[in-house]
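Assess this:
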Amino acid sequence: MNAFALIRTLAGIAVAGFILLPVASVLISAGGASPEVLLSYEVVAAVKLSLLTATLSTLLIVIIGTPVAYHLARSDSALRRFLEVALNLPMVLPPAVAGIALLAAFGREGILGRYLASIGIALPFTTTAVVIAQTFVALPLYVRSARAGFASVSRTFEGASYTLGASEFTTFLRVSLPLAKSAVLAGVIMSWARAMGEFGATIMFAGNFVGRTQTMPLAVYSALQVSMDKALVLAALLILISFIILFTFEIIPKRRYADA
């Protein structure tokens, strides 16, 4: 082994250890937690709320993000360039700024929120606010992945569908979407994972109320101030979810190549 190969190997070991040691420490420490901690109201409520809101926000992301992703993959208009810039913003904004932005738009005194409040609709510090915050930060991940999938679909196949008399919508459903399904599914998983881990925008826009807006990341933050055991259990659950997501990511490409 030459010197550079040795450096690369040692660097790889160091990076792996730097990442895996803290993660393993959480799992090991959480293993000694009392079962009562896992079944406590705060932990159960946070897990249920996170699963519910992440799923709802991901569903909303798929509904509104799929047409946008297809448009970005097929259009060269000025709208496409504007959408690309807009979609990149949530990815570079600090989480606290994202939360403030949502309050400025949808808060009771916000630009749109004041009109919603006048008809009895209050969004901040509600479960709906959690879904909105998660959607705001996770939407770009889905659109970027789905767009790449649609862009990889040959227009020859779509053209053949049009030649056979299919409409643009029918072609999208029966040709474009099935051929881009791996990238679309990857986007769904990434956006769901991002929604599950969202913290900054959620605590700013939705608050931190047990059973109503306290998701798992917020519960970890709160538990750390009163009970290390609860914080470790919640952190371990999030880590296990992350492992499942990574495992799923490993399966998707293999299934795509197997289908091909």
In short: The chain has a mean pLDDT of 88. The longest helix spans residues 41-74. The radius of gyration is 22 Å.
